[in-house]
Specification:
5 helices, 6-stranded antiparallel beta sheet, elongated
């Protein structure tokens, strides 16, 4: 549009020059309409430029806000309810698995690379956790589990960071890489955990978790910036075999 306005400006200027050569009007009478026409054309050219820049910015913004897309699969899911007392007899203990023995392995099979600091994971299933009080008051029921992000911040270095070194290296979950989630991923001590666990709506837990063997879990991978669900998977929890 700007090019058309410039071409029109040149064309009118040519006509104005011819009019000046052959007209008997005074100089002031001829100049007034010339200036008016030129000003109008300059305004049109400026508006066309602004419009072009605006459309370009809108197009670029549209591209930058495209939701992330990736194919994420549950490669394995194993675990079991954590024992209320680790000193239980051997027969009973075989039916259970400690929090650190609950593991879910996810594999990125294709699509966009996922930035770890803006991806969350929600998991729903049946399992247990405990209140962080003396005597470990265990809670068993429907678990709602949330990894606020996938970065190592607010997580247990012994489990999450060590098991995911390759994926965490460049702060991005790339095609072909695996992510291991563990029931003991919650940060210990005074560090604020980025893993949140509630049991039957009760969020006063240690933020550790164990899922009942043989039960089904539902897992969602979410782009927190757009709230878009990137992937949703279901899996049956197999008993931890060691």
């Amino acid at each position: 549009m700007a090019v058309c306005c410039i071409f029109l400006l040149m064309k009118i200027w040519g006509k104005i020059r011819n009019k000046q050569l052959f007209s008997s009007e005074t100089v002031s009478d001829a100049v007034t309409p010339i200036i008016g026409s030129l000003l109008m054309l300059i305004v049109l050219v400026a508006l066309a430029g602004v419009a072009a820049i605006s459309f370009s910015n809108i197009a670029n913004e549209g591209k930058s806000t495209q939701p992330l897309m990736a194919r994420i699969l549950v490669e394995s899911c194993e675990g079991g309810l954590s024992p209320n007392n680790y000193d239980e007899d051997e027969k009973e203990d075989k039916k259970r698995a400690r929090f650190q023995e609950n593991k879910i392995v996810l594999v990125h099979e294709g699509g966009d690379s996922l930035p770890l600091d803006s991806i969350s994971i929600k998991i729903f299933g049946y399992g247990n956790s405990y209140r962080p009080v003396f005597g470990q008051d265990f809670l068993t029921g429907n678990i709602s589990l949330l990894y606020l992000d996938l970065s190592p911040r607010g997580k247990n270095n012994k489990y999450y960071a060590d098991k995911n070194k390759a994926t965490l290296e460049d702060n991005s979950w790339n095609v072909g890489e695996r992510l291991v989630l563990c029931g003991q991923d919650s940060a210990e001590g005074a560090t604020k955990s980025s893993v949140k666990v509630s049991v039957d709506g009760d969020s006063d837990t240690s933020d550790n978790y164990g899922f009942k063997a043989g039960s089904e879990i539902t897992l969602k991978v979410i782009d927190t910036k757009s709230s878009n669900v990137i992937a949703e998977q279901r899996a049956i929890v197999k008993h931890y075999e060691g």
